Amino acid sequence: MDVLPSAPVELVVVAPSAGDVGEALTLKLRLLDEFYNGCSQWTEPVTFDVPEGVEGIPSSLSPEELNAFGGGMVTVPFSISEPGIYAITAQYAGLEPVASNPTQIVVE
User: Fold this and answer.
1) Nearest to 17 by CA among 108, 107, 105
2) Spacing of C-alpha 94 from chain mean position
3) What are the b/e assignments for 8-29, b being 16+ CB within 10 Å?
4) 61: burial class by Cβ within 10 Å (0-12, 13-18, 19+)?
5) First and final C-alpha spacing in the chain
6) 105 pLDDT exceeds 80?
7) Following DSSP, what letter does each residue of 3-64 receive, concatenated?
8) Mapping DSSP to helix (H, G, I), strand (E, B) and coil, where does residue 1 land?
9) Is residue 12 within 8 Å of residue 46, measured between CB atoms?
């Protein structure tokens, strides 16, 4: 039996909880349906609200860019240039904006 996801109802955005200034980090994005099945296709762009000091995350990713990852999970490399606590907000068309968990950046 194949389980196929229905329409997406939630965007999940996960960032590392901690890191060092300038360290290579990865932001993970996933669309879920109402039963928490992962959606494998992105049909709309994702836009980002990126705090100052966060480098490498674009202002948006097109459906073609998102689908290039295959399987629905998207990973976006980034780094942060200043110590502090950061959250990255993303929005998928038709869904509420969602903030990542906080990432605390310290000087190594």
Assistant:
1) 105
2) 16
3) beebebebbeebeeeeebebeb
4) buried
5) 50
6) yes
7) ----S--EEEEE--SEEETT--EEEEEEEE-TTSPBP----S-EEEE--TTEES--SEE-HH
8) coil
9) no
pLDDT at 46: 98
Structure tokens at 100: 């990542």
Tell me if 64 sits within 8 A of 72, measured CB to CB. no
Reported as a single tens digit per residue, the pLDDT across 43-59 is: 999 999 999 999 999 99
Q: What angle do CA 13, 31, 6 make, to 5 degrees?
A: 160
Query: Per residue in 65-78, pLDDT tens?
Result: 999 998 789 999 99
Cα angle value 91/93/97 (rounded, 5°): 25
Dihedral angle sign, alpha carbons of residues 38, 41, 43, 45? positive
Going by C-beta distance under 8 Å and a sequence separation of 6 or more, which residues neighbour residue 43?
A: 63
